[in-house]
Automatic annotation (TrEMBL):
<dbReference type="InterPro" id="IPR005135">
    <property type="entry name" value="Endo/exonuclease/phosphatase"/>
</dbReference>
<keyword id="KW-0378">Hydrolase</keyword>
<dbReference type="Pfam" id="PF03372">
    <property type="entry name" value="Exo_endo_phos"/>
</dbReference>
<dbReference type="InterPro" id="IPR036691">
    <property type="entry name" value="Endo/exonu/phosph_ase_sf"/>
</dbReference>
<keyword id="KW-0255">Endonuclease</keyword>
<protein>
    <submittedName>
        <fullName>Endonuclease/exonuclease/phosphatase family protein</fullName>
    </submittedName>
</protein>
<dbReference type="GO" id="GO:0004519">
    <property type="term" value="F:endonuclease activity"/>
</dbReference>
<dbReference type="InterPro" id="IPR051916">
    <property type="entry name" value="GPI-anchor_lipid_remodeler"/>
</dbReference>
<keyword id="KW-0540">Nuclease</keyword>
<feature type="domain" description="Endonuclease/exonuclease/phosphatase">
    <location>
        <begin position="4"/>
        <end position="256"/>
    </location>
</feature>
Amino acid sequence: MKVLTYNTLFGGFDGADRRRFEAQIELIRATKPDILLIQEAKNATANGSQLLFQMEQAFEMRGFIANAPHTGQNTGIFINSSVKPLSFETDSVHFHHALTILKLDVPNFEKPVTFISAHLCPFGTHVRLTEAYYLVNYAEVQNYVLLAGDFNSVSPYDPDPQGLNELPSHFRTRYVTSDGKAVDKRTLETLNQAGYMDLGHHFGQNADSTVPTATYKDSEFVPFRSDYILTTKALQERAISYKVIKNDLTDIASDHYPVIAEFH
């Protein structure tokens, strides 16, 4: 089972310019994930879900979208034909954007696997911490659960991002404690404490940043790991690889690098 998570930056569109979207299609076709979790699926369900249908055709996958009514930055999960959906839920009440929850019957897994695509609030550590406590409820250690997406948070396993003090204060405040003296790592600490296992840390690649990409170096980010694949212990034991995908395509396709993991 191959799983890809990707913050696509406005769905790959810059106004009417769809070059980034086409680059994302090329990447997804090349990596051939069984399950694709996306964030910022902007306009996917507008105009009768016209873009969603285009994405399904281009990816050759079936899509499930959680609408984010307050921000328009939807989350979603796409699946290939080898996996079967069992249930589909969304949550836009307790999250700044929205949460997509999809339970799947996956070949060679003896029980269902629950996938959660998340995009936590970019603006405040206290908001993300509240969101994390809602995510805690899904961390049933005996079950197969995978939580992935853009958490906009620094892990306690990772070094403090370099250059935070050079960021404008309204960007720097997103990542530090209320007194401004330390990097706030409570969101990932809470998820780890609840039983979510960090695959980047598990495979010794937790220092590999996912933002910003080469094209977006002069943005609101300093280099750090913002995108995660977390699993319950039961699913982590079946993980065989983890990688942040950095190449010519992903340098230009978004401001986030995608992350891929494989399970036996």
